[in-house]
Amino acid sequence: MFTKLLVWYVFLDSTECFRFAEHVEPNLEELEFESSKDEGQHAVLFRGEGLPRTVIQFGTPRTATTLEFQTLCAVMSVLHASEPNPVLCTYEYKLTYVENPEQFRVLKTHQNVWDWPANMVDDATWVFATLGGTDGEVQLGVLKEKFDIEPKYVQIMQDVKDVGTKLAYDYQSVFNLSDQQIHDVYDYVSLWSVLRQCCGCQMSKHWRDVLLQKTNADNTTTGKMCASKDLDDVESRLMRTTVHGLLGSTDKLSIVDLAFNGKYCSWFNKQVACKKLQFNEMPQEPYC
């Protein structure tokens, strides 16, 4: 099922008169320029409103913003799998407007919406948000007041706690993903979420405390889950997913973590235990 889009063909015939022809096409993201083989005729497909070129994810820290950001990266990657350049997924401390960016982009930010550039949200930009407190509600109000838009989707923190990575399926209708595409997204996000909690410089505090021998793994749900996993196996399975193949070396647990290599998580957890690493702290040489 797809949305129909009305397109006008504009061409110059041999009498040098402009002619118009109505045509109905699937609602494609971008309509390309086409030229007729007949000399003197040119057909132009005007770009229609479709999927975004830039996606912005925002929310207050510790409201699972990275989960939504990574899900959006996965979604955009499967949507644009045939593009020569991979989707650019990046954290922006301060947003900067880029007109007609060469790459499809997913931007994550914690910047106050009032401080976004006035032209940051255009017709080719979609905004997504997380909500876990009153500050988030205020920011949604600012988004409406400043740009006269509402987010395409708001990820609620309580929903994350209730259903976890199954929230990924909510994005199927938002982006009109096929069943295979959403399967690829969920396959990736479900594995990534395990590693996010049990590995990397922003791992769960509960699991870090286990590694630092401050508590027993059986004392928390996260501790039990992480202790039960072969993290190298989970990491290797993630690296075999369609989404990881599309993201490549940019696929990481955070902006400061190193790329996956099949052994990164076991190596990092060893460094946490040996060097007593704290939140957002990366190990320094010599390594354990």
Notes on the structure:
The protein has 288 residues and is α/β, with parallel strands linked by helices. It contains 10 helices and 9 strands. A 5-stranded parallel beta sheet has the order 6-7-5-8-9, with helices on both faces. Strands 2-1-4-3 form a 4-stranded antiparallel beta sheet, with no helix packed on it. α1 (65-79) runs antiparallel to α5 (179-198) and α5 (179-198) runs antiparallel to α8. The longest helix is centred in the middle third of the chain and has 20 residues, at 179-198. It is globular and about 50 Å long. The chain starts with a strand and ends in a 13-residue tail after the last helix. Mean pLDDT is 84; it is low at 1-49.
The counted number of beta strands is 9
Structural class by sheet pairing and helices: alpha/beta
Query: Any idea what the CATH superfamily of the largest domain is called?
Result: P-loop containing nucleotide triphosphate hydrolases
Tertiary shape: globular
Question: Topology of this protein?
Answer:
Blueprint: E1 4-12, E2 18-26, E3 34-35, E4 42-45, E5 54-58, H1 65-79, E6 88-91, E7 105-109, E8 125-131, H2 134-147, E9 153-156, H3 157-163, H4 171-175, H5 179-198, H6 205-211, H7 221-228, H8 231-239, H9 242-247, H10 264-275
Parallel strand pairs: 5-7, 5-8, 6-7, 8-9
Antiparallel strand pairs: 1-2, 1-4, 3-4
Helix pairs in contact: 1-5, 5-8
Looking at this protein, list some descriptive labels.
alpha/beta; Rossmann fold; 2 domains; 4-stranded antiparallel β-sheet; 10 helices; 9 strands; 17% strand; disordered N terminus
